[in-house]
Amino acid sequence: MSTAPGRPGGRLSGDRIATAALVMIAVSVLWRAQVASRGFLAADDYVLITQAAESRLTVEHLFALYNNHLMPGGRLLIWLVTEYVGLAYWPYVLLMAIGQAILGITFFRLLRRMLRPSALLLLPLGLLLFSPLTLEASTWWAVGVNMLPMQIAMVLAVSAQVGYVQTGRRRHLVSLASALLLGLFFFEKSILIVPLVFLLTAACYADGGPVRAIWTTIRRWWPSWLMLTVLSLGFAAAYLGRSESSLRRPESVGEVFSFLTQMFGSTVMPGLVGGPWQWLGAGDGAPVASPPQLGTWVGWTIVAAVVAATVRQRRRAGRAWLLLAAYLLMVAGMLAATRLGSAFSGVAGGVPRYVSDVVVVAAICLGVAVVGLARRTDLTVPTTPAQPVIASTTPAVAATGQPARLVSGHGVIHAEAPVDPEPHPGRAAPGPPPADVPPSNPTEPPTPGLLGPVPERYREAVTVVLVLLLVAVGLGTVWTTARYGDEWAAKSGRSYIDTVRIEMASAPPDTVFFDAPVPDNVVPRLSSPYNLQSRFFRAFGTRPTFVDETDNASVLDDLGRIQVATIVGSIIQPGPQEGCGYRVGTGETVRMPLNEPRFEWHWVVRIGYLSSADGTATLRLGDGVAQFPIRKGLNQRFFRITGGGDTVELTVTSGEVSLCTNEIAIGDPAPRPE
């Protein structure tokens, strides 16, 4: 396909642009999948998998809130993987790679529908595909299962609205509604699609000042807003009726200022130009942005320069950047209202996943500012070098005498983009063309490219500077992604699970455990009770056996190794009888003081004893009572008890027994020192 004269943009034909875009998408998907595969599941992943393993596939399970998030789509995918694969990471890497591919393809289709045909379309596409701000969404499943569908829904919704504005066809309203419902099916934050679509329509397709543009947008495309309002109100009623309020109050103005400074200075601006270049590790979770001070200023400088240059070149660019600023403020307001005033407010502004959806808006705005909106009529006839270009609203006849196929109608109409046919003969699309996008004319001169306003004598120097800037941003992106991959690859949970699997495969069949939390660096205690081993290992093929009473207990240490168990906690004071400690006969009760009191809780008791015969005994700790069997000879017994106090009472309740003990410990199971 050749590039027609007057075609804005560039020297690449449509086929070559599409090929380059597909190569970029493939590289992005493979690269992100490689980074993701270096890591493993983390934190919230385990909780969601445990909940799936414990539940049947029911409506109640799908629509249950998780940390106040409504994500039935994510719960469905997790349940299916858990049910048919088990506790594994590769299915989630595959799903995230598929999501990344869908996002890239749908976004490129949006660019071709919304913007003028140009090789510069690859700039916003590259921003979306490679921005470090979206790394978490393509590597950490608990993030990707929310953010990737939301990003895809954002792109589909904008594309549907643009199609409706360009053609007036009502089928685009169905697509718009479907896109919003898709996003809400995975993440309630997708409600931001509604104001995004409205503001984008006003910024890109309505003329006049702010008031006039908003009024024009409401009046001219009211079916979109009516439909989106109904869906939004329905979702809000359903969500708010099930959720608890997540709103928090910041503790001070300084906290708000620090949050905004961190969010814009340390995360968004550096992230849009390949930063943050440095990461701060956060355990098994994704690292936090920690750019050097110089990097922060570099980010601001590059973004400011791009904004200034594009605004000077194209009037519609100013509106595009205002759209990005408005969306950033919405995201910042939502985060400030739900994250500040908590224990994590100090790092809330440095978490890229909170702003990964901003990249979609930034990429759209960059495309509008650099490439420009598509003409409302850009009629193109395929030609050969020997044939002239024929552009007309009437049937055309090529030089060969055969009718040439014309692509006509309202909207994005050029050789590279899919077009909508005229919805009805003579029917006008619901809105005038943007002020800076006049109707095409086959005799008009080519639209200036990126260097249009630059005098000829400076173009070579400016081109060199722009190329060097793109190379620098690209190298920064590679460096940032590689450093992220290093941080993401360090996974305590993977090592712990792999070790447990190996240990369980070689353990004797009678190996049993008392339930206990997994290490905090695998599942934080804030996720209790889903940090308990009995729940953590629900999705395992071969699970440890957990008991409440046994003669010989084992324990999993922090590395996942099976160790002989003992009890760490309070112990009884030494008994008065030499060689026996405390002597307890049948029907007798002996009080034994502890070296330190135990508060009311669920404890494990270990008693080591020497008994003259078999029988039973009862141990009391405050209000807690536990009965256990006694066997003749030197033995030990582990059992659970719920209680608290500074003294235990031991009673032999049956059998002709004389029992000696000087070993009673009350606390938590732990590996026995070697």
UniProtKB/TrEMBL annotation:
This is Uncharacterized protein. Keywords: Membrane, Transmembrane, Transmembrane helix. Residues 430-448 have a biased composition (Pro residues). The chain crosses the membrane at residues 12-31, 89-108, 120-142, 179-202, 222-241, 253-274, 294-311, 320-342, 354-374, 461-482. Residues 415-452 are annotated as: Disordered.
